[in-house]
Amino acid sequence: MSKMQKKQDIIDHAFELFYDQGFNTGVDAIMADTGISKRTLYKYFPSKEVLIAELVEHYRVNVIPLLRAEVERVSPDPKGRLIALFDVRQAKFTEGCFRGCFAVSAKLEYACRNAQIEAASEAMMADMNGLMRAFCEMTGHPDPDTLTAQAMVLFNGAVVAAQASRSAKPFDTAKGILRVLLSFPLP
Amino acid sequence: MSKMQKKQDIIDHAFELFYDQGFNTGVDAIMADTGISKRTLYKYFPSKEVLIAELVEHYRVNVIPLLRAEVERVSPDPKGRLIALFDVRQAKFTEGCFRGCFAVSAKLEYACRNAQIEAASEAMMADMNGLMRAFCEMTGHPDPDTLTAQAMVLFNGAVVAAQASRSAKPFDTAKGILRVLLSFPLP
DNA sequence: CGAAAAGTAAACCGATCTGTTTACATAACG
DNA sequence: CGTTATGTAAACAGATCGGTTTACTTTTCG
Question: PANTHER family attached here (chains A, B) (predicted)?
């Protein structure tokens, strides 16, 4: 196994652990899960917080293009991609594969405590905003800026409401609102 | 100082600490902040997690009526109370006095780990839903159930987006959407 | 082959955590 | 006054944490 593969292996296991058990999971769990010693872990990552920052960066670099590709596959019509974005996330949530935005969780956990993690989270959120804006523009809506801000509120609201209520219904609600906004675009 | 006053004193200090420093704050900080010894703390609360569960319960019992009263004060007209609820939360956020829903934070932190805290959080969220529904009914909207679900998504979305972006703008966005929904009530 | 690199397992460090206990001071109250 | 409850301060227990180091084994590769 090459160096890059091993580093990727650590990233994959650590991400899974932090994603569904929270950032207070100990490094011992990562070692055991990945099957490496502590010395190796600290050879690849100088500290746990640097590892987390790299996880957020990895999330940004991988999830955004993956999400875009999946939305384009589900909705060949560009006009429908805004709704399709919600559909894709809702489907992942229903399958139990989606547990909220990793970057948002990291940002809330390390707010005012770790600048590197905060910066990585902000970069991810900026990318997400860009993706949302691209889909909003495709709808032909006359005010894509406003629509983007609205869609971000709806997206975040659906995610957190779904997490808290353990139900995918908030996604249906959010999509219903989006359709209203697309039909009556002038607040 | 009576027993109840002292217990309340602990609750107040612990709540403040957990609210803006997270649930991983140590009990030592609570002792120092309240000005009591560890023995006294553990006389009133058998464990840290029980204390947190009682904090969530205390949040529910106090915040909901307070919120309702404040909204009624701001909006004498029942029809405007749904928007006023967002205004009140936005104002608290702008003043720096609002840092998200304590119950949602607790639920996300102790999901699948502490049933008592989870139950208290769910009770709080149910009360919040009831408050939201009452305000939705006052608007005269023909489908208060749907409106309530929509308002909850918007509220949660505004809160988390505001927290993540350190800006109150998402509240304006959410209120704009609400006004649209109230004007064009049929999706 | 044989040296260098990279790995594991485990001890270890110092700090921190929840929670208990001991020793002592203080206040209430008959 | 003396007893009892209630408090503090601090030591202590046992665990876990992030992180380092040591001793030894495996792999890689000229």
Answer: HTH-TYPE TRANSCRIPTIONAL REGULATOR YJDC, TRANSCRIPTIONAL REGULATORY PROTEIN
